[in-house]
Structure formats: C-alpha cells, structure tokens
Amino acid sequence: MASSLLSPLSLIIAFSLIAAVAAAAASSDGDPLIRQVVAPDEDDLALNAEHHFKGFLSQFKKSYADEAEHAYRFSVFKSNLRRAKRHQKLDPSAVHGITQFSDLTPSEFRRQYLGLRRLSLPADAHQAPILPTNDLPTEFDWRDRGAVTGVKDQGSCGSCWSFSTTGALEGANFLATGKLVSLSEQQLVDCDHVCDPEQPGSCDSGCNGGLMTSALEYTLKAGGLMREEDYPYTGTDRGACKFNKSKIAASVANFSVVSLDEDQIAANLVKNGPLAIGINAVFMQTYIGGVSCPYICGRHLDHGVLLVGYGSAGFAPIRFKEKPYWIIKNSWGEKWGENGYYKICKGRNICGVDSMVSTVGAAIKTNKE
Prior knowledge:
GO terms for molecular function: cysteine-type peptidase activity. Keywords: Disulfide bond, Glycoprotein, Hydrolase, Protease, Signal, Thiol protease, Zymogen. By secondary structure, the chain is α+β, with helices and mostly antiparallel strands. It has two domains: about 10-105, no CATH class; about 125-360, Cathepsin B, Chain A. The chain is built from eight helices and twelve strands. The chain has helices at about 10-25, 40-60, 65-90, 105-115, 160-175, 185-190, 210-220, 260-270, and strands at about 95, 125, 140, 225, 250, 250-260, 275-280, 285-290, 305-315, 320-330, 340-345, 355-360. A hairpin with a 7-residue loop joins strand 9 and strand 10. Helix 2 (about 40-60) packs across helix 3 and helix 5 (about 160-175) packs across helix 7. The longest helix is centred in the N-terminal third of the chain and has 24 residues, at about 65-90. The protein starts with 7 loop residues before the first helix and ends in a 7-residue tail after the last strand.
C-alpha cells in the first residue's frame, strides 16, 4: 500500500492514472492500446508550482539558509515537477510525483543518496549453485516470515551498499538462529576499507560508495557485524572504527553471486533469505507507489537495495492483467515510496535489477549477550 503522505501533485497523477485505465477499459475495441498517463500540462504545473512547493516544505519540514537558497531550490523543484511528469509517461504503471528529494538536482541526488560502486568481485565470492525452480511459490515475502528488520534511513550519505549488506545478513542470521537482530551499517562505513592492492581505488569508502560483495568479504574476514544498538548509525564517515569483536552479533559463513536468471534469483530468495542487489535508481527519485516498469531504463547500477520478495498485481483488464514484480526494501526511510519499499516489475531485467545479486549464509554459532 502506498504511503498516506501523498502530495497534491501525486494525487493528481494518481487520478490521471485511474482515469486513463477506466477510459481504456470502456473502449469498444477488443484490445485497445493502453492510453499513456500524463500529469497536468506545463501551464498547470507552472501556475501551481508555488502551491506545490509550499506543501513540499511543510510536509518534509524543509528550510533553507537564505532567500537565495530558497529561490534556487524552488527552481530545482520546478524542474523536478517536469521530470516527474516525464517519468509518469515512461512508467505509467507506477505513480510519480513529489518526494523528499524534489529539491535536489539529479547529481545531488546521486551523490547524497546513492553510492553503489562497480568494483571487482572479491576472491571469496563464488557462483551460487543452480537450484530447482519447478515448485516455486507464486508469491513470496520475507517480511511475512520475520526475516526483515524495519526500514532504515541512510540520510545524505552514499552508504546504501552497507544497508543492502546488513539486510542480507540480518535475514540469513534469522534463518540460522531464529532471531532477527538489526546489524550495524556504521561498522561497515567506519571499518570496511580493505583494498585489493592490484585495484587502486577499489576500497569500500563510507559515504562515497561501496559494493555489497566487498562488504561481505570484509565481514567474513573481520568475524562478523555488531548490533545496531551497540554501534549506532551516524550518517557520516568521519569517525574512527569502533569495532569490538567481543560484541559480534552475526557472522558470515559464505556468500555467492546469483546468476541473472530470474527463476534462480527467486529460488535463492526463497531458500536463502533476502538478497543484496544493485539497481539503477533513476526512476526512484520521483517514485510514489505502484509497480515501476519503465519503457526505458539504463542498466548502470548505482544503488544498493534489498530484495525481500515477489508478487503480482492486477492492473487494467486489458493488457497488463497480472504484472509480476520484485519487492525491494530501500534505505530512505518510511516516508519514501510504499512505506519505504519499491516494487519493480520482473521479467526483463528492468533497470538492471537482475544484474548484481548476492546471497549470504550466516554462521550458526554467534556471540550473544
């Protein structure tokens, strides 16, 4: 279910989506074209931009240093209204509109909230074995089985890779021990800087980005991760490493890279727990809810997230019918997307969602308080 904190523009776009679907369904043709959904026209956006901006400032409690900054952010906001409209045309099965990132330029958004780095795979990363796929459930969600902690918020730090890593290990540790323990992203941000001497610049680098498999390699060699409560998140990478080996809460036994085959991804998800994945987040800056299935989306991976399940949703009773989707836990807080979650369609490696998938096994023996 989409977040209840929808902006006025988001509601307009959502009503446009409903109207378009209804119009298509009412057509006398047997299989008419799905009408593309469009937001209000440019004149309407221009006339109402100030009203939307005031609502945005109030909803997300935004304030700026001075009038010059306010004016600049308003100009960026108007540009993002137009961008949300373009995204709605390209991605009509989702709802796009105003989010907490609507006053950020695309480059600011990438720098502050993404951070997946394309590094070489560590030596301990193996190909996951091929699993049987003939008896996979039609729908599956690890949230219903107790393996997923609450949605977290990375803040304006490019540490998404650390949240993807902890989420995968939290799930694996739950399967191994029966206990769900929130693990420390800050330990990875502060302490995971091990580099391959043959790969200059290949380190995981705190708020400047990293890679989940590299973080799992660090965790394997360090012995494990501490609890979130013992090593809380600060959203900065300027502190010293405070890792205390006596307080390890979960340990990595092994980790593997899953093939691009979607049935294998689903099989690994069901058997091994939530999966650490990479994605192209270009449509996520304006995402409000629904199943994102853009006509065009690059496969350059720039954001680390957690795959927790899959399902299908009914759309217009014409072409879309049931649209299968992946369920993704993000790390931008519960006010983003569908209470912190993102749905993206399965089937065609949309936005590179199938291109970088890792599964982790947790060591059963852990140090507990």
